[in-house]
Amino acid sequence: MIPAKFDWQLNQNVLSDEQKDIATELGISPLIISILFSRGYKNIDDIKSFLTPQIENLRDPYLMHDMQKACDRIKKAIENNEKITVYGDYDADGITSTSVMYETLVNLGANVTYFIPNRFKDGYGPNPKKYEEIINDGTSLIVTVDNGISGNKSVELANNMNCDVIITDHHKIPDDLPEAYAIVHARYPGDEYPFGDFSGVGIAFKVATALLEEIPEEYFDLAAIGTVADLVSLTDENRILVKYGLQELSDTQRPGLMHLEQLAGLKADNINEQSISFGLAPRLNALGRISDATTGVKLLTTFDDEVADDLSHDTENENKKRRKLVDDIFLQASKMASNNTDKHTIIVYGDNWHEGVVGIVASRLVEKYNKPTIVMSHNPETGIYKGSGRSVEGFDLFDAINGIHENMVSFGGHSMAIGLSIRSDDLNTLINHFEDYAVNNGIEKLQKPKLLISKKIQVSDVTKQLFDNLQMLSPFGTDNEYPIFEFEPQMVTNVQTMGKSNEHLKFQMLDDNSKINVLAFKNGKLASHLESLSDCVHVAGHLEKNTWKGRTTIQVMNDDIYSDDVEIVDLRSNQLNKSMFQYSNSLYVFFHEKVYKQILPFIEKYSKACLYNNLSLEENFDNIIFVDCPDSFESFNLVLNAISKNNKLILYLYNNNILHEMPTRSQYADLFRFVEGHKDIKIYDDIDLLSDYLRIDKSNLAFMINVFKELNFISIENGIMNGNRNPESSDITLTKSYILRKHQLNVKKKLLDVDNTTLNQIIRSCF
To answer: Which residue, of 184, 498, 636, 682, is most buried by count of CB atoms within 10 Å of its CB?
Structure first.
């Protein structure tokens, strides 16, 4: 079996006449309309608006709380040449937000600078000490981007120092708001903007639009990067920002982005949301994780090509460091986690692990083990453990740790992610509480996260036309995920692993005369299972275009895979050797006592062997191995019905008997006449001569003689065969020898003479 990681939810909507009419009117695939209906777009106007995002659909920025007040104060500061500081954040959203706000103010002639906090020295968000330094340096107006909504102490300090603070933020609004001069937020209580899911750069873009009194199309590229990187909803206005932003990125005039795209291996004619998610955003995020994110703002805002080239290489080098750190720490952390497989939670730590990447490591451990995870770096000098936690769907990580928050040096976060610091004296308290909370709150009963399946389709349905139709729904992301399809191929083949550690998987799905490649990242461990289940797997995946050596094809990117059938490994052989009996934790099943006794001495010490009619499955075995071939399919079926689909079946089905079809009626008659006409036949000495004379295969001849003997047609004494006079007429088909041979031939037909696919089907039908 291969268990599914997700709970598959297939869209069961039947295409209605209304949907068909809309598809006809718009001239697009009914599948696209069906997907849009399932996502809440249920009339032609909403569908048109979604499919063709327009700049003019960006709403009036002054609808946002305190926008007028914020713009008036900024304009006043510009008129009076007050020093303005843009206070940003160190992730990709914060870097792009800072760049948009800074460039806007520069273009308006402001006396402006910016500050990006250092993750390690300044921490996240408004830092009162940094506010004090900034104000003492002459700043009289601080404009926050992508942070500030929880900066009560910092704002209070600024107010006391006669410095105004304008907060522009998108994070969750706390119960106690800071007393800032203005708070520009799409979800301000009682004054909500019509769309509330902006990222930090989305809010900054709205402020820039208001200040410049026009939509600043030159900032679309920055807005797209921050919006995609921050995983906010890619609907409504965000869809417009990203749609136009991707076009801007394809022809960006920013030398920093040009160089960064080149280093990321991106081609201008193929820039999409994945280019941001896997190319640009990780590189910008690496700056804040490894060193100083100020480099990112310089990179995005400079128009000096030489400076941009230098900064882009600095950024690329930091990203390489980040990747190596993640890989190195993950390797150590994964080994630690594998030593505690009996636990429902994971807490791992190491001396001086880089604090900037422990959150990424935690995410990778969750992906591998599907357990709530905390990864911490231990500082031997201070004795403090500092790190990040990531959760699984349905488990509130914040609540899990909040119960011992008084033991923490620092603690914060939400249900899916936390940050924390703890003294060494309290480490065991954290470890024990975390596990106890998980057990007491039913972590074993957690449901799998849902995977929404748009439609079940055939391999032959995957065409370039289908792919092109689906692109009408792009850009894809949160709340507008790429449609996922379910496949139930007739066969998977060409299973192979990829990557330095064989961690990835590639295979082909076949249906009749159609085939398609599938890539399954981080699923290399499934390779052997997939080969054993090649004719009974379900694949969920989305489509992607792949260009290799000038040839473009459509492939499936695997999102999940499962099979609820038994794994079958076909190793049928007419020879046995010692190496075939070295499997650990396996049960070897025999159908013949003679073979059982011969092989028993070679069975690996951590495995067991038994005859089929003495089967014991009280222990859990990794493999059930059928060594020899049964004499009847009923015996084989008896064993199959006693075992579980969770067991892997390995089939040797050793058989050294050459079985031909049943002798014909005329062959029986020929033998009978020969016995009647001859006496004292030396059957053992002359069997070959008799076989040649009667033109009957020797094995068949021996079988026929046994049948005659059982019917008392003949007698054999001391190797001499003679016919019995006047034998009673009997039915050959009722003899034990005939019945056994009939069963053996049936076994041969079902288990030995068939190809692998047919054998698998026959065995699975028995369950």
So the answer is: 184
| Spatial distance between the Cα atoms of 661 and 741, rounded to a whole number of angstroms | 9
Q: In what order do the strands lie in the sheet with 681-682?
A: 681-682, 720-723, 714-717
3-class DSSP assignment, residue 491: strand
Phi then psi dihedrals of residue 322, to 5 deg: -60, -45
Distances (CA, A) of 560 to 112, 465, 605, 640, 718: 50, 24, 37, 28, 69
Q: How many CB atoms lie within 10 A of CB 736?
A: 10
Q: Are 147 and 204 in contact (CB under 8 A)?
A: no
Strand (E) positions, 320-471? 346-351, 373-379, 384-390, 408-413, 417-423, 450-453, 455-456
> What pLDDT does residue 565 have?
85
CA-CA distance, 102 to 204, in Å (whole number)?
Answer: 10
Determine the Cα–Cα distance for residues 158 and 416; give it in Å rounded to an integer: 33
Contact indicator for 164, 203 with CB cutoff of 8 Å: no
213, 262, 269, 309, 313 from 256: Cα distances, Å: 27, 10, 18, 7, 10
pLDDT of residue 446 exceeding 80: no
User: Span 300-326, mean pLDDT?
Assistant: 95
The neighbouring-strand residues paired with 587 are: 608, 624
Contact residues for 148 (Cβ-Cβ < 8 A; gap 6+): 87, 125, 126, 154, 155, 165, 167, 168, 169, 178, 180
| pTM for the full predicted model | 0.80
Q: State the CB neighbour count (10 A cutoff) for residue 442.
A: 10
Strand 346-351 to 681-682 pairing: unpaired
CB neighbourhood size of 481 (10 A):
16
Residue carrying the six token digits 């495995």 = 607
- Tell how strand 373-379 and strand 384-390 pair up: antiparallel
Contact 246, 224 (CB under 8 A): yes
Alpha helix ranges (H) inside 185-235: 200-212, 220-229
Task: Give the residues across from 412 on adjacent strands.
Answer: 419
Task: Please tell me which of 253-257, 655-659, 751-755 the model is most confident about, judged by mean pLDDT.
Answer: 253-257
Mind listing the pLDDT tens digit for each residue in 711-766? Answer: 889 899 898 999 888 888 888 889 888 889 899 889 899 999 998 888 888 888 88
Q: Which two tokens stand for residue 215?
A: 């939509």
What separation, in Å, do the N-terminal and C-terminal C-alpha atoms of the chain show? Answer: 13
Residues in the chain: 767
Distance CA 375, CA 123 (A): 18
Task: Let me know the angle formed at the C-alpha of 679 by 678 and 681, rounded to the nearest 5 degrees.
Answer: 95
Do 355 and 438 meet the contact criterion of CB atoms below 8 Å apart?
no
Q: What is the pLDDT of residue 2?
A: 87
Tokens representing residue 398 in the block:
């914040």
The answer to whether the bond into 489 is cis (omega within 30° of 0) is no
Confidence bin at 414 (pLDDT 50/70/90):
confident
* Residue 61: strand, helix, or coil: helix
Q: Strand, coil or helix: what is 626?
A: strand
Nearest C-alpha neighbor of 701 from the set 676, 675, 725, 733: 675
Cα separation, 164 vs 139, in Å, equals 9
Most confident of the ranges 22-31, 52-61, 559-568: 52-61
